[in-house]
Design the sequence.
């Protein structure tokens, strides 16, 4: 099981500089890769460049970036630029994001998201490997001057069309906040899609909230993350089956995230994450591996644990 670290995930109330502190901590503790997500606060490529300059060796993955907001060439250029200024291997993760972000923040239409994801991934599969002297895009007349960024192409997927895109074009497929049972089902779908595409199956990774020996503030942060998924198809049933139907119903009625985090019991934090004492968390990691996950990307709770120091130290590579 590969274990990487997510320095910037979804928006929350943590300090703006916290992702850089998490990246530095992950590098110091010997993790091999850090993910720099994109949202209303941080541009993924700027954050990745800053993380690369602040660390010594860790590989960088920018994203997921929203394909409705960024074009394929801009994404490839961003990754190559980060690699050029950091001297580090840089990967790219793609996703469709949400209507709330694409339309509400960027003012761009979120139309045909699955089709745009497919088109962008297909283009990037070539663009990320272009060598100096080749056209930056076919028939453009401009020539590539930077080296390829060298990292993997990752596609965030959950629905069948996105899984097919990952199988056809990506090196890795990314899940977000999932249970081992969901991993098992999605692993089977990815394997079948890769067989249909005639390609080796991509590796399967998941962003999982993590808090070892959590403080109350850490649990609250994890529960706030989970609250955002209570109305998402494919997740609501998981939480209902786990005994959290009251929170699911409140979410469907429009309750805000703070209310939902108060209603969710502490046990909910372990349903789709790595929460508890070190032995409990390690057993949970084994359960994810048995379900077919190749890589866990730790999203460390930083409330009550600045830079995720306690959690990342407990789970650091030997």
Sequence:
């Amino acid at each position: 099981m590969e274990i990487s670290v997510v320095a910037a995930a979804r928006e929350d109330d943590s300090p703006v500089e916290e992702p850089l502190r998490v990246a530095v901590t992950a590098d110091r503790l010997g993790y091999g890769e850090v993910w720099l997500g994109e949202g209303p606060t941080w541009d993924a490529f700027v954050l990745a460049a800053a993380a690369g300059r602040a660390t010594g060796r860790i590989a960088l993955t920018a994203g997921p970036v929203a394909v409705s907001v960024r074009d394929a060439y801009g994404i490839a250029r961003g990754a190559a630029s980060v690699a050029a200024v950091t001297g580090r291997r840089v990967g790219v993760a793609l996703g469709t994001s949400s209507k709330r972000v694409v339309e509400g923040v960027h003012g761009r239409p979120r139309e045909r998201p699955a089709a745009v994801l497919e088109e962008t991934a297909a283009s990037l599969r070539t663009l990320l490997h272009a060598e100096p002297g080749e056209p930056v895009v076919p028939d453009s007349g401009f020539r590539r001057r930077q080296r390829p960024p060298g990292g993997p192409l990752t596609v965030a997927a959950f629905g069948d069309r996105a899984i097919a895109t990952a199988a056809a074009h990506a090196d890795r497929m990314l899940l977000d906040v999932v249970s081992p049972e969901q991993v098992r089902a999605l692993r089977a779908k990815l394997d079948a899609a890769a067989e249909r595409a005639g390609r080796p199956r991509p590796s399967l990774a998941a962003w999982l909230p993590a808090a070892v020996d959590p403080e109350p503030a850490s649990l609250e942060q994890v529960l706030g993350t989970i609250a955002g998924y209570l109305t998402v198809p494919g997740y609501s049933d998981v939480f209902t089956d786990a005994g959290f139907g009251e929170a699911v119903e409140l979410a469907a009625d429009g309750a805000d995230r703070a209310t939902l985090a108060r209603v969710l019991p502490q046990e909910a934090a372990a349903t789709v994450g790595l929460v508890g004492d070190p032995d409990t968390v390690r057993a949970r990691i084994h359960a994810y591996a048995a379900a077919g996950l190749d890589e866990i990307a730790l999203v460390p709770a930083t409330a009550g644990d600045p830079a995720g120091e306690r959690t990342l130290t407990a789970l650091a590579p030997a």
Notes: The CA atoms of residues 208 and 273 lie 5 Å apart.
